[in-house]
From TrEMBL:
Keywords for this protein: Ribonucleoprotein, Ribosomal protein, RNA-binding, rRNA-binding
InterPro entries in alphabetical order: Ribosomal_uL6-like (IPR000702), Ribosomal_uL6-like_a/b-dom_sf (IPR036789), Ribosomal_uL6_a/b-dom (IPR020040), Ribosomal_uL6_bac-type (IPR019906)
Protein's name according to its UniProt entry: Large ribosomal subunit protein uL6
Pfam family, one: Ribosomal_L6
Domain Large ribosomal subunit protein uL6 alpha-beta: residue ranges: 12-83, 91-168
Length: 185
């Protein structure tokens, strides 16, 4: 069996799960509600305070779907109970970040500022601590959406390997290259 798929998902207090007849799973918690359509072949059952995901056969397709939907449901349970948070830092001279509501304004060394509109389900916070790089913090309940938005923001100015300038996650390690050496002797 799938090692991930066979593990039951424990439900924290205050989280309720509803499985509809069309195999749509709705997870409600203190932070919000998420829904996920599950493949009809995969069975999802709520037993006590646990979610159990089972598959009908040992075929390769069913094995892969088994682990996938277990992980997606687990991410939903964690999202509605604790939430997710991604922090990005802007490394580079003159790089700035500010926001007006859900619109993120980035100054990343181009001739113009970049205005990036975020979905309403993501909480946005920007700060510029004195003497440090500007920070952009994304918070929400949907792990997939936060990861996608963070990746899109990162792609606006990829980290270059020579000076390390660009948009990166806080704590991300960037492999640096040596660059040119001095003249030959």
């Amino acid at each position: 069996m799938s090692r991930i798929g066979k593990k039951p998902i424990n439900l924290p207090e205050g989280v309720t799960v509803d499985v509809s007849a069309h195999n749509t799973v709705t997870v409600k918690g203190p932070k919000g509600t998420l829904t996920q359509d599950v493949n009809p072949d995969i069975a999802v059952a709520v037993e006590g305070n646990q979610i159990v995901v089972t598959r009908p056969t040992e075929s390769k397709r069913h094995k892969s779907l088994h682990g996938l939907y277990r992980s997606l449901l687990n991410n939903m349970v964690i999202g509605v109970s604790d939430g997710y948070k991604k922090e990005l830092e802007l490394v580079g001279v003159g790089y700035k970040a500010s926001n007006q509501g859900q619109i993120l304004e980035l100054s990343l060394g181009y001739s113009h500022n970049i205005f990036f509109s975020l979905p309403d389900s993501i909480a946005l916070k920007t700060e510029t601590p004195k003497g440090k790089n500007p920070l952009v913090t994304l918070e929400g309940i949907d792990k997939e959406l936060i990861g996608q938005v963070a990746a899109k923001i990162k792609s606006l100015r990829k980290v270059e390997p020579y000076k390390g300038k660009g948009v990166r996650f806080v704590g991300e390690i960037v492999r640096r290259k040596a660059g040119k050496t001095a003249g030959k002797k």
